[in-house]
User: What shape does this take?
Amino acid sequence: MVSLSVVLSSVADGSMLNRHNTHDEAVVQNRKKFLDSNNTPFDTTIRLNTDLLNRATIANETDYCKFVYVDESNAGDGMNGDSVIVADAIVTDKKNLPLMLPVADCVGAVLFDPTHEVLMLSHLGRHSLEQQGAIRSVEYLAQHHNTKPEDIQVWLTPAAGKDKYQIWALDNQGMKEATLGQLTEAGILAENIHDDPRHTTSDETLYSYSEFLKGNRKEDGDHMIAAVMH
Assistant: This one.
């Protein structure tokens, strides 16, 4: 039977993303050290690259629910620098092919269907959630991999607290509030949601991009969530 490993880094592990230098060697080494310490092969891991700074501020894209299937041909994509794949979620039905996402404030969501042996790593930030990104992630799995919502297990990273970050287009919901609401609407069972309730905006063991921009954190950076089927 297929099993799943999910790991989450912290500030102590170092930043897993440099927003201004995708080839930052210190970041690459942080990724490698953390993954190695969790028995996850760096060379075959695939990084979900949302490229939001460019897409939202320069390209003015309008679709933040781009889902891409990956397999062994994509192994290592984005781990040492630029990523060929730019998406809001990556999906695989291959075992021993780790998926990883650097994240700070937004929600990193792992969706796993052990029945159909499919794994999705979805980035649920303001842009995606405003477009019902959690619901559409579940719908994608149903349409392309025949999954049923009640069979899907979900792991959620910490996210910005509602007291510090609200999504005005969603009636001022918080990141996690919006995510949980959409997952429930999509048919995910409450007992199948494994939520890390910590707030990145108040827990300084985690990175917070919004708090860095406000001058409340000295270091910009992202922690990492990684998942792999065995």
About this structure: Residues 110 and 121 are 5 Å apart (CA to CA). Helices lie at 25-37, 52-57, 126-130, 133-145, 175-185, 209-213.
